[in-house]
Design a protein that fits this description.
Elements lengths: L1 H6 L4 H8 L3 H9 L6 H11 L13 H9 L6 H20 L2 H21 L5 H21 L3 H29 L25
Helix pairs in contact: 2-3, 6-7, 6-8, 7-8, 8-9
Length: 202
């Protein structure tokens, strides 16, 4: 939020007055001590001209996010969808800022997605592993753009391994649904592009 505010050329007091909260509230949002509710996040987005970049990072149901934060091993379909949509929103934020600005947030989201894949119940393992691969691949891309080629290569290799595990999980689930049948090739969803076509190193 601090980055978006600075890019908009606004001070904390001016933003606070625009969205009808105190400057200390804006300060707590920027430091991560508090999170705006979805309605206030949309208002701040409008004031900063961020095009939804901030509100897209706020969980639609803050009570649910708090509930899951207190029970990290609880993974359900909504958590997986939220992990994927959070990564998409970070990509939108990157478009108006830079890879360097979003890399710490991408790293945190990717780590949460990897942990969710480990904790997911069997029926949700395939989509959870897919979300983990998506986050890890995006982190690899951020490292590549920053010139950290070795780290980028490691992250992209991990993403490829996660994506392979995702395809294997889908095959296993299909086989489990049809006893005695051979697993069909994975065709129910388009595989994620794990490694973008990267230009040669400078």
């Amino acid at each position: 939020m601090r980055l978006l505010r600075r890019r908009a050329g606004m001070s904390q007091p001016r933003l606070a007055a625009t969205v009808f909260v105190s400057q200390s509230t804006i300060s707590r949002f920027e430091s991560g001590d508090r999170m705006p509710d979805p309605a206030l996040a949309r208002l701040i987005d409008g004031a900063l001209g961020a095009g939804g970049a901030l509100s897209g990072l706020i969980p639609a149901d803050p009570d649910r996010a708090d509930f899951q934060a207190r029970r990290p091993g609880l993974v359900d379909r909504a958590m997986i969808v939220e992990a994927e949509s959070g990564l998409v929103q970070l990509r939108k934020l990157e478009d108006i800022s830079s890879s360097a600005d979003v890399t710490p947030m991408v790293a945190a989201r990717a780590e949460l997605a990897v942990q969710a894949a480990k904790d997911a119940p069997y029926a949700l393992r395939a989509p959870a592993i897919g979300a983990a691969a998506m986050g890890t691949a995006y982190l690899g891309w951020c490292h590549f753009v920053a010139g950290r080629y070795a780290v980028a290569e490691q992250a992209l290799d991990r993403a490829a391994a996660q994506q392979k595990a995702d395809s294997t999980e889908i095959d296993v689930l299909r086989a489990a649904r049809s006893p005695g049948a051979r697993p069909a090739p994975c065709c129910s969803r388009v595989p994620m592009a794990v490694s973008p076509i990267l230009p040669a190193r400078p």
